[in-house]
Amino acid sequence: MDDSDDRIRIDENVVMPDLEGQPPPPRVYPRLIRRLRIVMWLAAVGGLVMLAGGGYEYHRMQRLGREGKQVPGTLVDSSTLNTGKGRTSYHLVLDYKPPDSETTYRKEFFVDQTVYNQAQQAGQVPVTYLPSDPTLSTGNQQAKGDTEPLVIGGGLLLVAVGIWAYLRWQIRRVMRYVMGE
């Protein structure tokens, strides 16, 4: 190693205490801590957004299941999409008109295979809509809310809490060492 390397400077006037018998100082990685803080905040904010959005959508679907009315929906267009690994997604475009409305609504629905086959054969599918908001509707037989955003949001919050706990533990270790405990 070259002696002209000035990246490491040692002040010869500083007397280092004798550390014999003392535990070694805890390792601190400032870059890692900075990055973990960023990940922690992103996970916390993302988790809250996912929980809020997923909870709202789940609530809307539950409300649609309780208060929804059914009307026949006329098939306008249908398509299937191979989403990979043997999975297929079924899409229907349906027109439906609530009985007390002048407006005919056209909406694309993602449905299961039985509803898709029924629409192909009969040309009609029952559409469940919310009378107070006819744009909130489903082409499936039952209105069921998606719980995946809730699970993902909860998982992100757990990651954020885990990182926070690790950072707190790291700070306590350093403080114990500095205070000589």
From TrEMBL:
Keywords: Membrane, Transmembrane, Transmembrane helix. The chain crosses the membrane at residues 38-56, 150-167. This is DUF3592 domain-containing protein. It comes from Aeoliella straminimaris.
